[in-house]
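Attaching the record inline, Q. Sequence:
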Amino acid sequence: MNEQGMHAIWTEKYRPRTFDEIKGQEDIIDKIKAFVQTKNMPHLLFAGPAGIGKTTTALVVANEFFKDSWRSNFLELNASDERGIDVVRNKVKDFARTRTLGDFPFKIIYLDECDALTKDAQHALRRTMENYTKTCRFILSCNYSSKIIDPIQSRCAVFKFKPLAKDHIFSIIDVIIERESLIVSDTVKDAIFEASSGDCRRVENILQSCAALGKTITEDNVFSMASIAKPKEIAEALSLAVRGDFEEARKKTLKIMLNYGLSGVDLIKQIQRETMKLDINDREKMRLIDKCGEIEFRMVEGSDEFLQIQALLSQFGLCKA
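Structure, as predicted:
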C-alpha cells in the first residue's frame, strides 16, 4: 500500500466520531450542535486553514443527524478535483432533487475546497442552493472565504475555523501515543507542534512517519520527517549574522538548506519566526521582517535561492542591537 493510502487509514482511525471529540473549535461546535439537535439547519460555510477540523465537523454533522443512514443521505465532493460547472449541473443537482431515505427533513451535500470552483460553477451552485432548499442543505468548505462569491456567502451561516492551540495539539498527541504505545517526551511534543503549525493532519502524518521507524520518537526524527530545520540551528545562524560573522552564518545556513533539503521559501518562513526571538530592538525586527517578505517575493518570481538567502543574511549583519 502506498504512503497516501496508509495515511488515509491512519487519519480515519483517529477521526473524531462525535462533537465532543473535536478539539479547538468549541464555540463553533456548540452552535452547530444546536442545529443538529433541532433538526433545523441553514446552509453552512466553513472557512479556515487546512487540517483544523472542517471536513471532520461536516462528517460528524452527517453522522449525528442521520445516524446509520448517513451514507445514503450525505454526498461529499472535492471541488479541487471536480471544479467545473458540469459537476454542479449533474452530480450536485441530481442528488439535491431527490428525497431523503428515511424520516429526515433534508439531505446534506458537502463541497470540500469550494474556493477552487470556477465563478460560473459558483453562480450555478447559488441557484441550486436556492431551488432545492426543501430537500437539501449544503455545507461548503474553503481555505479562503474571500474567494466565494457574495451571493453564496449571504445564503450561508459562515463559521471561521482557527488553527489548533498548543494544548489541543498536545491532547491529540496524547491520545495517539496511548493507543499506539509510543514513547514521546515533552520536548518532542514541542517539536511536533512547532513542525505542525496547528495543523492536526500534519501532526498525524508526522507521528505516523516517525512511528514507522520505532516506538521511541526523537526530536531529530520529527524535524527530519517534517522536512524542516531545527529552530535552534536557524537561531544560531541568525545570531552569527547579527554579531557580524557573515561567513560563518552563510556556511551554516547553506549547510542547513542542503542537509534538510529545504527550499528557499521554506527556509524564509522559519527565519521569519526566529527573527522575532532575536535579541535586537523592535525597529530592527520590523526592518528584517520586511526584508523577509521582499526576499520571498524575489524567490517566488524566480530569483536564485542561495543568492537571495545570502542577501537576507547580509541585512541581519547590518543590524544595530
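The longest strand covers residues 136-142. The CA atoms of residues 75 and 109 lie 5 Å apart.

More tomorrow.
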